[in-house]
Amino acid sequence: MSAIEATRVAAKLGDCVGFRVSADSATDAGIRPGDLVVVDLDRPAKEGSLVAVALSNGTGAVLEWRPPFLLPRGGLMATLRADDPAIRIVGVCVQLQRDLVL
Predict the structure, then answer these.
(1) I need a labelling partner for 40 at 20 to 30 A (CA). Which of 10, 64, 80, 97 fits?
(2) Architecture, CATH, for domain 7-97
(3) Is the Cβ–Cβ distance between 29 and 62 less than 8 Å?
């Protein structure tokens, strides 16, 4: 299964944390490997929100919240059920940062 591996970065701003994207499950939403996604840990997810999800295998993903499902927006990752005990919604993606110079 393909997933966006979200790794914690050093910066933390209030109730938000940053995760570095390393796979392709949200490319159709404009989120690419190497991007930094800022996640609000306290904001409730609304239908259609992009959310950061922690998976029990130690990886993470950015997925679209369509209750009761979590949908990939690119790549080959399968649709997940939010009530799966192996999945935890970490927070809502609120900002994207991308390096323009590589």
Answers:
(1) 80
(2) Ribbon (2.10)
(3) yes
